[in-house]
Target: Vanillate O-demethylase monooxygenase subunit
Amino acid sequence: MTSIPRDQWYVAAYGAEIGQELFSRTVCGEPILFWRTRGGQVTAVADRCVHRRFPLSQAPSRLVDDQVVCGYHGFTYGTDGKCVSVPGQSRIPRTARLRSYPLVEQDSFVWVFIGDPAKADSSRIPRAPYLDSPGYTTVAGMEPLKARFSLLVDNLLDLSHETYLHGRYIGTPEVAATPITTEVDEEAGIVYVSRHMDDAECPPFYAESTGLQGRISRWQDIEYTPPCLYKLHSRIAPVGSVVRPDGTDPDAFHVEVVYAITPETEHSTHDFWAVARDFALDDEEVSKFLAENNRTVVLQDVEALDVLERVIATEPEGYQELSVNIDTGGLAARRMLQRMAGAGRTHAGTS
Amino acid sequence: MTSIPRDQWYVAAYGAEIGQELFSRTVCGEPILFWRTRGGQVTAVADRCVHRRFPLSQAPSRLVDDQVVCGYHGFTYGTDGKCVSVPGQSRIPRTARLRSYPLVEQDSFVWVFIGDPAKADSSRIPRAPYLDSPGYTTVAGMEPLKARFSLLVDNLLDLSHETYLHGRYIGTPEVAATPITTEVDEEAGIVYVSRHMDDAECPPFYAESTGLQGRISRWQDIEYTPPCLYKLHSRIAPVGSVVRPDGTDPDAFHVEVVYAITPETEHSTHDFWAVARDFALDDEEVSKFLAENNRTVVLQDVEALDVLERVIATEPEGYQELSVNIDTGGLAARRMLQRMAGAGRTHAGTS
Amino acid sequence: MTSIPRDQWYVAAYGAEIGQELFSRTVCGEPILFWRTRGGQVTAVADRCVHRRFPLSQAPSRLVDDQVVCGYHGFTYGTDGKCVSVPGQSRIPRTARLRSYPLVEQDSFVWVFIGDPAKADSSRIPRAPYLDSPGYTTVAGMEPLKARFSLLVDNLLDLSHETYLHGRYIGTPEVAATPITTEVDEEAGIVYVSRHMDDAECPPFYAESTGLQGRISRWQDIEYTPPCLYKLHSRIAPVGSVVRPDGTDPDAFHVEVVYAITPETEHSTHDFWAVARDFALDDEEVSKFLAENNRTVVLQDVEALDVLERVIATEPEGYQELSVNIDTGGLAARRMLQRMAGAGRTHAGTS
Model:
């Protein structure tokens, strides 16, 4: 029984990762083959030859024009997954076709739909436009996690851990000490968690990148659209700075921290992270600093979550966690994910 | 439930591998201890002391004359597996006896019978006399495969993969393009697959070893006796060369490619390979070239099959392959192997 | 179904291993956190935060005075395991408490009680006073074993293996050749195995450390109190030397070899070993020699038992060993351990 929701859109890659060569990534347990056609479209088909299972991403499999030739026996497929050539015979079996995945390239991400393609409504894909907008500069990466995706959801929905796990990077005492407010929009399928610190220490991550000195007003507004897209709207401003009635906010610095949380398997996760800022847009030093610093922070999470996965693997069945106020957002997210996973299961059972 | 046929003969080693020292190899999940007695006979007994399971091949276990002394508590056994000494007492328990395996050394191989020894009819062992005959020169080796034996059977029964996986070694476009003929001799328990190419490119493997230039007539006649012995009778000759009515074939070069496919466990295999030729018998350069080239080809298979084993390990249950004409021989072999495995199972259940 | 007895005392560490810093060890599958308080007491609590399972021994978790602060979200616990601080709120949930383990520091060991704390009667802990007495000098260590604890029990209860596995260290032909006597005190829960050799070769272990030359009288008196404490009372004396009627034994050298056999998991074990002697008390050369030599012997056992664990992992179900006279003590120990494991299971089922 899987805990991974099906019939959902997931980020499989950054668009920049996929060129005119074979690229493979496993999403929700399904190995998927990608390449960018000469026309610029990204193709997503099952990375497993229908004949004897050979991975089409594995050498000596190769791309010839916009067709992939299996490196084992030469079965050849077009961008739609349809087989166009079989060795030793001219007839192509009707069922010789790779599964093809609904795909949308948007906001720098390549999204694929895992589940029943008939349900793939691309208007449901959540947006993160700043990752690909003129008013922002973005640094990004992806770290492999040897832990189930729900541990990363827990982690990101409760930022009090910044104070302890990311102490000299993004955490200060005020993060853990300041209560949160949580809202759940069941209809839109979004969990909101907010923590507004009006007078807080400025952690190195923001002091170095913004140049702010002294104490700050720091807002953390989380917007999580399960299962995959997590956005942290981060506002840093001098203490006392206010948002004007017309919505402008000239003294503040805005950082949009985006995570795409994509299950690789039941017990491993692709941890995509991006940091978009609306200041110092052309300052490469700032870009370099934020990229290195955020990657360090992500790797601190990776190390901790990999440990938790191993702890879970050896704990007795029925072990119970203790939840407190800071977990309100995480628990709401878990409930939504469980409902999604249950719905996918029911469908799988009856279809 | 095992897919490995029992009550069958398997190649455990080359005779040349076994001298007057302890040698262990696992065949069909059974660890077997071999040594060559001072009289020159090869002995095969269970590689596990009856007392506390210590492997008799593991130091400080040792051979003393023609007896093996367990390195843990000193239990000592003769060539027939019978215990002859127990520490701390003079009485030897009647049941203190290692399982002994029926064994035949023949055609350069050491064959053992896995299953009920009462069924070990050595006349059923298939022959490969060229591996040990004056008219031939042979190069040989063994590569460990981290894949189930049936994947190697599939691989060897369908040589169209030579064109893709072994492209610059033994494969040319004609191999995949030329249809095969398949025959199954149910009574003798042999699968035949033939592909005769009358006008084909000569791959480096044969061009270098025979000295032939230009296009060739190339015959591939497979003769597989499940479960273990696979022979590829390969004939290479100038285009237009014919076999005379008296059976002589003076313009042709003959290569006998032999594989012994021995399951080590359910998911690993000993991949024995040998190449016997009837030309350039004393040419060490040719021997060296064929040994290196064939080992490279085998390692290409090993890499591909190891990948397939990992693919199978993660695929959903009930996954279906697609088979086409080139698979006729492989499918026939599978059916025979399944029948053999079923028969062994039934026997195991009722004995 | 576990084979590890519960409701039992086990050695978790040497007292010397635990200082004023976090120390973690898994005992019977339970990860336990230790530290020595500023008052000198050793504390033992579950090494897993009640909130999100983070190991409290894992950086950046840290000890602040006598409280441990979780490195993930800052949950803080006192020496009794009670939570004293939770992030983002002042109320501490009543159930926020780490499991605390009954603990006794004695005879150089830290003993913990695994099971129902109500049953923790510290008077039942077996003693090894020489490990911490003025009349003795002790060398000690611990080697991790990747094998189930019962394999180490088998090993230590049957010393005939010294002749083969530890041939040039502590084994001589007489050990395997001399019959044993075995006694079982069911009430006290002790297995005794004795082997008295009146005229035996002196192995290097004793020749080097005592300076004795020529043949010796060598007594091996085993006293095993399942599950954890094994003592070998070893007496080495010149041939013919006798114990006087008043109990004094002036010509003999006494070595107390102590093992604590602590299951880490079902398939791994902490192999604590100590060698206490009543001679050459201040001779550092002798201490160094005995420490190095005994560690070598222990590592020979570790290598052999790790092999046996792998053998068991691949053997067919229902495999039967053959036992002989030398196994009498080991079989008695197995029976006592099985009874203990069964009792713990029953309790677990009804509590």
Q: What stands out?
A: The radius of gyration of chain C is 22 Å. Chain C has two domains: 8-122, 129-344.
